[in-house]
Amino acid sequence: MNWKKALVCLLCSAVVLFSVNLPGAYAAGSDTIIFLALNDNLVTSPSVENMPIAVGGTVYVPYTMFDANITGNSLGVIVGAVNNVVTVFNKQKVLTYDLNANTCYDRNGNSYTRAIMRNGIIYLPLVSLCNYFGREVINNYQRDMGGYYAVRIYTPDVVLEDDQFMDAASSTLNGYYKSYLKSIAPSPSPSPSSSPTPSLTPSSSPSPAPSPSPGPDDNPDKRDVRVYLSVQCGGEEGLTDILELLERSGTPALFFFRVEELRANDDVIRRLLASGYTVGLTIPGGPAEDAKAQLEEGNRLLELIAHTSTRTVRLESGESAVAEALESEGWALWTPNAAAAGSGSAAAYANALLQSIDARKAAARVTLDDSPRTAAALPRVLNGLREQNYQIRLAVETEIG
Question: Which in 160, 276, 304, 355 has the greatest CB count within 10 A?
């Protein structure tokens, strides 16, 4: 894509994210408005989930904005659900943010600017993080736009120079700034209207019975509920049919393999990765050191098979001590929270699984086996999810903790 095409893409996009340490005018600015841009694109629908904030002169960005699946960089981001630790890493470096201890360290014990949490959202310090990983991995640029700031996070392969990008984005940003100000302005109080004083004279006709409250919708819209599908590959005969169905329907999924079964599934793993699926490792549990050794061996084999690695792990034992130890090392633990009984027909299994998913209010994480029954039930499951507008999302490491 040449710079003219990139410019067109920029102008057709909607909003922007940006970040860097802010100069003195906004040093105190908890009310500072900062929009964000990623590479050559503006981010649409600015909200607390994607807008940077300024605290004490430092710009912090929601941790999800550093995920490789969003930004296109080479970084991995993992949030530990057990110990409240955020790990940002690539093949050379690791930063560990411990929100409970208010610390941030690298592998050598060097200290860096800590992460913060506001309104349940974890924010990472932009400049400190970019400086640590280096310009060849991730960079940032900011500009005072007059009343608000714009921050750009980008990788080395961007097309537009910083000034080109900001100049092209300025009119769009001004529009978003005005819209944002309107959205946070208090609504005027309605004028009180006069209403006649109700009569106390009893009526000769009986009052109508109150209408019954509407019952729940038989087909509720679940567009706000995320569903993450995974498949535990165990050598059963349904895997080929499951994969073909997922590929035909464009359904994202995470596939787990036991370390000892990786070599026997090398062709399957390469096919999965080429099709855009993700791969995780399943281990039985045991002592933490044994678990870490198994995962290291698993990643060694994945590197040989497909020049890849993973930080996603499924523990068959569910031991909390092992889980905490792995999360402290930057592993993302897969914890299913929706399932169906192991017996019954494919139709009964599909219905039970949909009922279990329906009970989840925000996110459902499902692990399927690779049996022929699962392959037979999956079309009914996928149809049910799409009829109710569930978000079927790829289980990336930043979302599954």
Answer: 160
Mean pLDDT of the residues in the chain = 80
Kindly give, in sequence order, each residue whose CB lies less than 8 Å from that of residue 83, ignoring residues fewer than 6 positions away: 98, 100, 324, 327, 328
Q: At what angle do helices 266-274 and 239-249 cross, to 10 degrees?
A: 10
Nearest Cα neighbor of 74 from 122, 124, 132, 138 is 138
pTM of the model: 0.51
CATH number of 226-393: 3.20.20.370
Among 37-51, 105-119, 125-139, the range scoring the smallest mean pLDDT is 37-51
Domain map of the chain by residue range? 3-73+119-182, 226-393
Distance CA(115)–CA(99), nearest Å, equals: 7
Triad 271, 157, 272: Cα angle to 5°: 10
Task: Please tell me whether residue 17 adopts helix, strand or coil conformation.
Answer: strand
Q: Could you tell me the two tokens for 382?
A: 């996928």
